[in-house]
Amino acid sequence: MQIIIRDHPSEVAELAAALVRAQILRKPECVLGLATGSTPVPLYGALARMSEDGLLDMSLVTSYNLDEYVGLAADHPQSYHTFMREHLFDRAGVRPDQAHLPDGAAGNPDAECIRYEAEIKAAGGIDLQILGIGLNGHIGFNEPSESFSKQTCAVELTQSTLQANRRFFGSDEEVPRRALTMGIGTIFGAREILLIAVGAGKADIIRRTVRGDITPQVPASVLQLHPNTRLLLDREAASAL
Ligand code: GLP
């Protein structure tokens, strides 16, 4: 794991955008793995601005998002489909037919997971995977558990994740309890991984991810074994290292 620390979250976003841009310049038809959450929003803003300014061409990029809530259709205001369209795809010119997320409204979630996993493989796998990290160490929606999930799967969200997601929904009842997520194995298969974390709230889980045991109780700890992972942190997120 390579650890890069910047003073301010805005510098983290700028560097992350430069790394994504470098990947796209190296291979314009690359496959990106994308994340949601508040952390990558400034990164997507920077990529959108670069595209609007003619400094970046994402028209040949294919993307696969990590996850989606079970039960939310693509046009639901809180779906990750909507999030990605608003923060990145529409502004940066990522073609809709090349921007993929699991279908949270699929009638058969298990079949949808098998289909999504096969699609990623058929695309040649992921060149660069962007990750955030949950307060409990989840990546995608792979929650702490007894084993590392191998492939895209349907998962129950933990209480801590439900609480973290509550702010996006009108009431407790509206917060989705399940999600479809790339597996730890899917994520680990990416040729390059860039995990971004900012803020003091992430300091403890970053310490456990980097310095703790490799355990499915801290899903992100598996990244210690990945041959090409960068952690890009601000001072606060790195403060317990
Ligand atoms: C959600 C997403 C994760 C993301 C996490 C952290 O759970 N499924 O991919 O890493 O939120 O969100 P934030 O960046 O807002 O802390």
What secondary-structure arrangement, pairings included, does this model have?
Blueprint: E1 2-6, H1 9-26, E2 31-34, H2 41-52, E3 62-65, E4 67-69, H3 80-92, E5 99-100, H4 109-122, E6 128-131, E7 153-156, H5 159-165, E8 178-181, H6 184-188, E9 192-197, H7 203-211, E10 229-234
Parallel strand pairs: 1-10, 2-3, 2-6, 3-5, 6-9, 9-10
Antiparallel strand pairs: 4-8, 7-8
Helix pairs in contact: 1-2, 2-3
2-amino-2-deoxy-6-O-phosphono-alpha-D-glucopyranose binds at residues 35-39, 66-67, 132-134, 140-141, 161.
What does this structure look like?
Helix 1 (9-26) packs across helix 2 (41-52) and helix 2 (41-52) packs parallel to helix 3 (80-92). 32% of the residues lie in helices and 17% in strands. The chain has a single domain, classed as Rossmann fold (3-Layer(aba) Sandwich). The two termini are 13 Å apart. The radius of gyration is 17 Å and the shape is globular. A 7-stranded parallel β-sheet has the order 1-10-9-6-2-3-5, with helices on one face. The protein is built from 7 helices and 10 strands. Helix 2 (41-52) links the parallel strand 2 and strand 3. It is α/β, with parallel strands linked by helices. The site of 2-amino-2-deoxy-6-O-phosphono-alpha-D-glucopyranose (GLP) has 13 residues, from loops. 2-amino-2-deoxy-6-O-phosphono-alpha-D-glucopyranose is lined by residues 35-39, 66-67, 132-134, 140-141, 161.
Keywords, separated by commas or semicolons:
three-stranded antiparallel β-sheet, binds 2-amino-2-deoxy-6-O-phosphono-alpha-D-glucopyranose, seven-stranded parallel β-sheet, alpha/beta, single chain, 241 residues, globular, Rossmann fold
